[in-house]
Design goal:
heterodimer; A: mainly alpha; two-stranded antiparallel sheet; 15 helices; 6 strands; B: mainly alpha; Formate dehydrogenase/DMSO reductase fold; 2 strands
């Protein structure tokens, strides 16, 4: 395989794996602030118990986020040296701001969050929780700003030519508020809130099915449901905003989302389908005629720019983008449906009555995870063949000093260590869930003692 | 070399500060890891791991931020070094993550074979991280082959030269010394007695490797000493370093472990200052063909970006210092094993 394919494969693999964790931290952060705020307000021990339990899960997702995040920080330089030289001046200030404002805030206060229950007053602890939640969101702000700049570069000029050409910043705020950054940030953040909320929903539903920690689970699920409902509806809104924005800033990407080839034609909205890129047709598809035109322009009869308006080597691979985009949208809709139906059941006081629906909630945790991954695939593959849109091609961004055999070697290393890391994550997550909120997290040498404590809980 | 206090110089110093912060903080927890196998009993080993328990994760953030700042201020250095040292850095990432896994896994099962295996993994990876970082530093000191296009032209094996390995071993020794002093602060009773005995041994180990490396440097890497010849007052830094090291046994004898730890921090800062003075104004020396070297000028971002980043740093750094210090304040004192411990 070529160096380019291998480098892209490695980046996709490592960023995909990394992106399991930060959204969980961001989402859980918001929920922790709500729970601990409720505790401070009501002084009910139940809320303290809830906060303490979810802090443990938060700490786990955060630790994995840091471990896999270090890799990302290195990888721009190791695999994409030419790209790093090109974007360093612009990208740099965003990454520096991320490091100083977000990472330190998050990691510093996390120690208090996890280990500081007995060491600081409840108010100081609550302050630390807010800081950690804020830090988690700040890290999303800066990395999404940087990524959005790659999609819609602004606030820069090109200095030098050929080998020495690079983008230099002319307007910092122009770079920060580039045409797509706010839409993409709100869309990414609500995806992260969904990831956190549905994790809480899933674990709580599991407890309800097992008839354990009932009060704990019921209260956790309610808080998470409110977050999930808000976030899933907000997601629909930001998703729409984003698509309208893309129609202006990256028309080739939007056309690939919907496999729209002919610029003179009114664009339909596909519910699903399979794109044949050779004869430019969508097979087995069902579409709403004129719907894309309507969503973008508010006019069902207006044509939308199609893929044929671009040179063959300037458009992304259509079917991958089409499929990932449509799956993402479908999952997003399903999450809205689940949230609203849950609220409806809650209103009718039947939320905890239907076993089948609790099973749906247990598995719903996979929804945001899949949608987040698919969303990134749509955004990033949809940007191809550019690494910086219309400025630098992905094939031009590689490291010249790195050979494909070296990347094969590092891919194997990452394969091994991420497998180990994922096993660790599932193992620890499961252990914490099985221990439940009542047991202090005991070391396994006291396993027997724990088991009896657990048996007692089941009776509650 | 004319010294002008411009933005490029400020960022050269600031990256040095981040590197020093990382070396001081992750340095002691890597040192604790390197010494981990010297105690045998399970409870003692748990105390060792938990002495770094609340902080090791946060300490690694300094590495992430250092990498980010390097990318931002000197993108050519970041691109050249990270792609040039590809295999070495991939191994470094592998052991960094592996070490994190070992810390998390170790105390989760009671079986002796389980814990002993992860203990070995934790300790070996701690040593390897220090070694690999030292090797990278060693290559920066000697210089690496660069082309006119600023790209690295050597191989992974060319990075593993005797001088670089010597710097690697010195780094391991330095962190062991630093870690043993940290442990003396965090332990009590019989364990503290044992740990205190290590301090003398690790100081001897460090001084031997440091003197050897210095001799090699004087003989084989003359470009590192040029500034010291032209500006003899800079020898003050080297003297400060020796004084700081000499002060450690004195403070240990007086049972002032925190002051001993501060001395060890001062020694790390002095060592990095020597390294930075030797390099300045180069960051990556091209060897051979010094005309292709990456300097604080030809490898830097634009003045505007350096200025924006300085604003960010001036706003952010007081906060970073304030909460770093407050975290260590909250977790001061001896390690106690609790149900939340590793």
């Amino acid at each position: 395989m070529s160096t380019e394919i291998l480098a892209r494969l490695q980046f996709a693999f490592t960023i995909g794996f990394h992106y399991i964790y930060p959204p969980l931290s961001i989402g859980l952060g918001v929920i922790l602030v709500i729970m601990e705020g409720m505790y401070l307000k009501t002084k009910k021990p139940l809320y303290e118990k809830m906060t303490k339990f979810w802090v443990k899960i938060f700490a786990l997702t955060f630790a994995l986020g840091v471990a896999t995040g270090i890799v990302m920080e290195f990888e721009f330089g190791t695999n994409w040296a030419t790209y790093s030289r090109f974007v360093g001046d612009v990208f740099g200030s965003a990454l520096a701001a991320e490091g100083i404002f977000a990472f330190f805030l998050e990691s510093g206060f996390l120690a208090i969050l996890v280990f500081g229950w007995e060491k600081v007053s409840p108010k100081v602890h609550f302050f630390a929780t807010i800081m950690v939640a804020l830090g988690a969101m700040m890290s999303a702000v800066w990395i999404v700003v940087a990524n959005s700049w790659q999609q819609t570069p602004a606030g820069f000029h090109i200095v030098g030519e050929g080998l020495n050409a690079r983008a230099e910043i002319t307007d910092f705020w122009g770079m920060v508020f580039n045409p797509s950054s706010m839409e993409r940030l709100s869309h990414t953040l609500s995806g992260a809130w969904l990831a956190g909320a549905f994790l809480v929903i899933s674990v709580s539903a599991y407890y309800l099915l097992k008839k354990r920690n009932i009060e704990f689970a019921k209260n956790s699920i309610k808080i998470a449901l409110i977050v999930a409902t808000f976030a899933s509806l907000f997601q629909l809104f930001t998703g729409h905003q984003s698509a309208v924005g893309i129609s202006k800033t990256q028309p080739a990407k939007l056309a690939a989302f919907e496999a729209h080839f002919d610029s003179s034609a009114v664009a339909p909205l596909y519910l699903f389908g399979w794109v044949n890129e050779d004869n430019q047709k969508v097979n087995f598809g069902i579409a709403i005629p004129g719907m894309l035109s309507y969503l973008i322009y508010g006019d069902a009869d207006r044509p939308v720019t199609g893929l044929n308006a671009f040179a063959k080597n300037d458009i992304p691979p259509v079917n991958i983008v089409f499929q990932s985009y449509h799956l993402m949208v479908a999952i997003g809709m399903a999450l809205i449906a689940i949230s609203l139906f849950s609220i409806f059941l809650w209103w009718r006081k039947k939320l905890f009555d239907h076993k089948w629906f609790l099973y749906v909630l247990v598995f719903s945790v996979l929804g945001p995870q899949l949608a987040n991954q698919l969303g990134w695939i749509s955004a990033e593959v949809g940007r191809q063949p550019w690494i910086v849109y219309n400025l630098l091609r992905t094939s031009e961004g590689l490291s010249k000093a790195v050979e494909s055999s070296q990347i094969v070697f590092s891919l194997i290393l990452f394969g091994i260590i991420y497998l180990l890391l994922f096993i660790l994550f599932i193992f620890l997550l499961n252990q914490k869930i099985q221990h439940g909120p009542d047991d202090p997290e005991t070391i396994p040498s006291e396993y027997e003692h724990q088991k009896t404590a657990l048996d007692r809980n089941i009776g509650e | 070399m004319e010294f002008t206090f411009d933005l490029n110089t400020i960022w050269f110093i600031l990256i040095g500060v981040l590197l020093a912060g990382y070396a001081i903080l992750d340095g002691f927890d890597l040192g604790v890891g390197s010494l981990h196998l010297f105690v045998q009993e399970d409870e003692d080993r748990r105390i060792l791991i938990n002495s770094i328990g609340p902080v090791w994760d946060g300490n690694e953030v300094w590495l992430v931020t250092g990498g980010g700042a390097l990318f931002a201020a000197f993108p050519h250095v970041y691109a050249t070094v990270f792609s040039g040292f590809y295999t070495a850095f991939m191994l470094l990432l592998f052991v960094l993550i592996f070490r994190a896994v070992a810390i998390e896994f170790r105390s989760k099962q009671p079986m002796a074979w389980w814990r002993k295996s992860w203990d070995v993994a934790f300790s070996v990876s701690s040593i390897l991280i220090a070694l690999l970082m030292g090797v990278a530093l060693g290559n920066i000191i000697t210089g690496i082959p660069l082309g006119a296009d600023k790209e690295f032209q050597g191989t992974f094996l060319s990075l593993l030269n005797p001088y670089a390995i010597m710097v690697g071993i010195t780094t391991v020794a330095l962190f062991m010394m630093h870690g043993s002093i940290y442990l003396a602060m965090k332990t009590e009773g019989h364990l503290q007695e044992r740990v205190t005995k290590w301090i003398n041994n690790t100081i001897i180990f460090f001084v031997i490797t440091y003197v050897t490396t210095t001799m090699f440097t004087l003989i084989y890497v003359p470009h590192m000493t040029e500034h010291f010849k032209s500006e003899p007052w800079l020898f003050f830094v080297a003297v400060l370093n020796m004084l700081a090291i000499a002060n450690i046994p004195r403070e240990i004898h007086l049972k002032k472990y925190f002051l001993a730890f501060l001395s060890s921090c001062a020694s790390i800062i002095a060592l990095l200052a020597l390294f930075a003075i030797g390099l300045f104004p180069d960051i990556v020396i091209s060897n051979p063909n010094p005309e292709f070297s990456l300097t604080i000028y030809n490898a830097a971002s634009s003045q505007k970006t350096l200025g924006i980043m300085l604003t960010i740093a001036i706003i952010g750094i007081p906060f970073v210092l304030a909460y770093t210090i407050s975290i260590y304040w909250v977790f001061r004192g001896k390690v106690k094993l609790t149900p939340m411990s590793y």
